[in-house]
Amino acid sequence: MTHPHPRTIGGLVLAACLLASPALAADTITIGIPVGLSGANSVVAPSVVQSAELAVEEINAKGGILGKKVKLEVADDGSGAAGAQKAFDSLIFQKKVDVLISMETSAARNAGLPIVARGKTPYIYTSFYEGRSCSPYLFVNAWVPDQQVAPIIDYFMKEKSAKTFFLVGSDYAFGRGMLAFTKSYIEKKGGKVIGDEYAPMDATDWTAIISKIKASNPDALVTSTAGGAPNVTLTKQLRAAGIKAPYGNLAVDEGTAKAMGPDAEGIYISGSYLTNIDSAANKTFLASMDKKFGSNLKTPNDLSVPQYEAVYAYKAAVEKAGSTDAAAVLKALAEVSVDGPRGKITMSKQRHAPLTMYLGQVQADGGIKLLSTFKDVDPGEQCPNLK
Amino acid sequence: MAERPILLAAGMAALAIAAFAGATQILDTYSMNVLVRSLLYAMVALTVDILWGYLGILTFGQSTFFGIGAYAAGLVFMHVGFSPGTAVLALAAGIAIAVLVAAVVAWLAFWHGASELYASVITLVLPIVATQVIFSGGTWTGSSSGLSGFETFDLSIEAWFVLAGSLLAVATAAAWVVMASDAGRLIVAIRENEQRCKYLGIGTARLKSIAFLVSAALAAVAGYVFAGYAAVVAPELVGFVFGTELVIWVALGGRGTLLGPVIGTVLVDYESAQLSGDYPFVWKLIIGLVFVAVIVALPRGFLPILGDGLKRLGRWVGLGGKTTARTATLVTAARRTVATASDGPAIRIRGVAKHFGSLPVLRGIDFEARAGELVSLVGPNGAGKTTLMRCIADGSERSGGTIEIGGVSIGRLPPERCVALGIGRKFQMANVFDSLTVAECLQIARTRIDRPSLVRRSTELALPGPAARVVATTGLDQRLATPARLLSHGQKQALELAMVLALEPKVLLLDEPTAGLSKAERMLIGGILTDLATQERLCILLVEHDLDFVREISSRVVVLHQGRLVLDGTVEEVVGSETVKQIYAGAGHHGAPAEAAR
Amino acid sequence: MTALLLDVVTTAAILFAVASGLLLVFGVMKIINFAHGGLITLGGYAALITTQLGLNPWFGIPMAALFGAVAGTLIERVVVRPLYARPLDAILATWGLGIIIGQTIVLVFGREVQFAAAPLGGTIDLLGESYSLYRIVMVPIAILLGLGIALLLNGTRLGLATRAVIMNEDLARGLGIDSTWVRFVTFALGSALAAVAGALITPLSSVDPNMGVPWLVNAFMLVLVSGTSLASLAAACLVLGGAQVIVSSLYSPVLGGITIALLAAIILRTRPQGFARG
Question: Which of B239, B271, B302 is the last residue in one of the domains?
Answer without folding.
Answer: B239
